[in-house]
Each structure stands twice: as C-alpha cells, then as structure tokens.
Amino acid sequence: MQYLKNKTLSEKFSISTILRTSFFVMILLLMLLGRPFSGINIFGFRVGEIIVGFSLVVIFMTILNFKKSIFVTTQQLRIYYFMRINVLGFFVVVFYHKDNLLDLYVYKTSSYFWIFGIYFISTYFLLGEKNQNLIIKAPSYILIIVYSFTTIKYPDLIHDFLIRYSDKFDFHKGAEILLIFVVANLLNLKFMKKNNSTTYLFISTGLFLPLFFYMSRGATIACLIFFITCLAREYKFIIANYKSTFIVFIFTVGIFIFSAVNITSDIFFGFLNDNDSSIVSEEVTPISIESSVTNVLEQKNYSGILSFYFQDGKIFNAEVNANWRLILWQEIIYDLDVKNLFLVGYGYSEIIPAMLSADNNGIDGTNENVHNHFVQILARGGIVHVFLIASLYLLFIRIYYNNHHNLKIVDFMLPIIFVSLFDTSMESVRFPTVFLFYLAFFVINGLQHKDISK
C-alpha cells in the first residue's frame, strides 16, 4: 500500500500506525459505502454508534484532563476552551429537563455535538502522518465509484455483504455525494496540476449535476455554489488557457447529457440491471436528450422554489416539499416559544413533538430529524446551543485564517453547511465524520495550490 511506503518494518506494525491507518480507511469506507457501512454490527454495536461513543470519550478525556490529553495540540487549545462551554451548555439542558444520562438515546439525539471529537482525533492522527497519499488521492476515485454504484450497478458481492451484516441497506443520499464531490475537487485543486484539476472540476460537475438535480435541490444549489466559487478562484488560469477550457467545456456538456440520459433510462447499462433496482426512474420512451433532461429537472420541482408568500403570519412556499419544511420549522419555533423552551429546547430524552405527526415522521414512521441542522439543534438544546455550535464553526474559520492567512476554508464549509440547512446530513454519523476529518486536514494543510502530481 502506497500509504505505508518508505516505513521501516517496526513502524509499519506499530500500534500507532495500525490505529492511524484503520482510522483513515474507516473514513474512506464511510465515503464509499455510506449508511450501510455505519450500520455494520461489531460486538453488538453499530459502527456509527462506536464512532459517536469514541468521539464522546475523547471529548470527556479532553475536558477533564486536557493538559495531559494526547488529543489536544497547541493549535486546538482555542477549540478546547470553547468545547468546555459547549459541554456546560449540554449539561444545563440535561439537568433542566432531567434527562437520564444513562439512556443511550440521550447521546444519540445529541450526537451532532459529540461528533466534534472526530476533529480532535483527526488532527492527532494527521499531525503524526507525513505520507498522506491515500487520503489525498482516494476521494477522486471514490466519487466516480459512487456514481457507478448509484446510477449504473451496485456490485452484488458488496450488496449481499451489507444486507447480511448491516442493519440497513441504502444508496448514498444527495448530500453525502455532494460532500465527496467537494472534498475530491478541493484536494485536486490543491495537489494536482492546474490543468488536470480544473478538467476534473468541469467533468465531475457535468457528471454529477444531473444526479443532484434528480436527488436533492439542496445538493444542486450547493454544487452550483461550489462550482461558481471555484471558477472565481481559478479565473486567471481559466482565462489564460481559454482554448483548452473551451474544449473541456464542450466535453462537459456531453458528459452532462450522458449523465442525464443515464439517470432517466437504461439505454446505456440496462443489460447490467435486469434484476436490480436503483435510484433511476422508469425508462423514458422514446429516449431523447430533451426528455431526459426534462425528466431530471422534473423529479424535484424547481419551478416554485422561489415562490414564497405570507399567510396568517407564516411563510409558505408554492413547492410542496419546500413548503413542508417551512411549515415544520415554524411549527417547532412557535411551539418552543409558547412553552417557554426557546432557550433550552425540548431536551434529549423524547422525540421532538412535531415529529410525532404522521405528516412529519416519514413513510415508516421513524424519522425524527427536521431537515435543518440548526433548527434541529434549536429543538434539542435551544437558541443558546445554536449560538455555541455556530460560533464553533466560525472558530474553525478563524483558526484556518490565522494559520494560512486566507479564507479558502469557506469554499469547503459553505456548500456543506448550506446543504445541511435542508437535509438530515449532519444528524447522521457518516456525514459529519467525513466532514470534520477533512476540515481538520484542510486546517492543517491549507488550500493553497501545491502540485505534487507526477
């Protein structure tokens, strides 16, 4: 494995190296396999539960004995002090609502907070590793594999393994694919030759934009935000190489059309999926470029997304799913205000009251997330906890700026936070784990271009 190249035999098999390599591989498997991997059972606990539990232990180790904690570096001291305040805020809510700290459900519903321990763990492992080729190059390949798994054919061998050993099989969500898309392109823009990285940016956008259109409006807008931001950052290179850029653009249009047709029909790879189900819609007959693109756009109704209106003191939207989210969020905020729980939320022991409604808890009745990261935090821990978590994100930006004297980390954080305003991504385990790992990577290494391609 390239990752272990140039190490002595004792270094290759040291406990530290084994743990570090296992941690990095886990991150990549979370990207590659998503929800099913986090649901694999190990010694009676799912991988996702183990991640949250270990992350929680690291936070408490740090809080209670930070001067001797191996997970705290000089770079992380500001985050450590801020985490103490966050932990205090958590216990204030717990004691106010008399939540049972021995109930694992309490830690499940507050996982959005404990998962920040991944940042400490990631920084510890990353600072001790000089050869980072595995975590730099793998996301670009994983992104293409995920596209294949999602739209062409999920390998039977992997599918059968996950069905057998995981608690649930599911395809990647739009937000999860967006995260891989952003990570892969930022790594390429930093480490690849400029012409290669910009070519990958254009082609991957052409390939995935129809998929985002089909799967998630939030991911679509976040993808466009990221793409436009990258173009703005690289405009000098693009203008200087306008001839090659034009050729790449034409090729990207072709890739976009191919992807749209592939997603809405079996014309290319139908022979692989005779007995398989995927995210694609029923075959469009007759097949045409126009009908394929139209079907991609119509899967998620974008026509009324900007049609907001006020009625009875509330905000509504003409698009059904967007309107459902708006009504749900306002219902939660109104209920918290009426019950005088705006400061401390509902706590962590019970399901958020609004999610008990059959209109909100999904087809199978198990959905407990409100499809907005900050409204979810508001419902659980109140407005104070929203302020603390938002301030923590701003602290990451400040630390990055102090280290690298630019704000390129916003290119990474903005689309990820944006998509989490309309999705349940941050309330999962896999999404914030990968996000915080690469956040730590970028804070340490920066995002300035550094060509290491050979």
- The structural domain count equals 1
- General form: globular
Residue stretches low in confidence (pLDDT < 50, at least 5 long) are 276-287
Strand content: under 5%
Radius of gyration: 23 Å
Class by alpha and beta content: mainly alpha
Helix/strand order: HHHEEHHHHHHHHHHHHHEEHHHH
Q: If helices are DSSP runs of H or I spanning 4 or more residues, what is the number of helices? A: 20
Mind explaining what this structure looks like?
A two-stranded antiparallel ribbon has the order 1-2. The protein starts with 8 loop residues before the first helix and ends in a 9-residue tail after the last helix. Helix 4 packs across helix 8, helix 11 runs antiparallel to helix 19 and helix 15 packs across helix 16. The protein is mainly alpha-helical and 454 residues long. The radius of gyration is 23 Å and the shape is globular. It has one domain.
Sum up the structure in keywords:
454 residues, mainly alpha, two-stranded antiparallel sheet, two-stranded antiparallel ribbon, 20 helices, 4 strands, 3% strand
